[in-house]
Amino acid sequence: FHNCLQVFLSIITSIKQTHLLSYPKLTLSYFTLIETLSLVQIDFLANLTTPLFGYLLSTISEGFLSPNQTIQNSCCIFLDTFLSYVFRLVKKQTASTNLMAN
Fold it and tell me: Of 42, 39, 15, nearest to 27 (Cα)?
């Protein structure tokens, strides 16, 4: 599964963000996948390298500007899940340096 996630990241980062957001079906699928990954594998997403995590947050930021309510909801769910995850780890004092850098 970890290898599949790595392949997913390499495919997504090879696509320009403008292209990713230009095609409605691709955009909806991308944000639905990010939402699902945040619910299932938030530890993986939270510990991405800083450039990859920056790309992910950049797309989330653009998703909030979408006129599609489903995409906006997916972005909200991602942020809620991520911030709850960070809060829990900081409270337990087990947050990694990579997570805190992101």
Answer: 15
Long-range pairs of 73-76 with CB within 8 A, sequence gap ≥ 24: 73/35, 74/31, 74/32, 74/34, 74/35, 75/31
CB-based contact 66:17 (threshold 8 Å):
no
Maximum CA extent, the chain: 41
Per-residue pLDDT, 102: 67
- Distances in Å between the Cα of 32 and the Cα atoms of 36, 56, 77, 86, 100 are 6, 13, 10, 21, 25
Over the chain (102 residues), what is each successive 10-residue block's mean pLDDT?
83 83 89 91 85 89 92 94 87 74 68
3-state secondary structure 15-83: CCHHHHCCCHHHHHHHHHHHHHHHHHCHHHHHCCCHHHHHHHHHHHHHHHCCCCHHHHHHHHHHHHHHH
- Which tokens go with 80? 């809620």
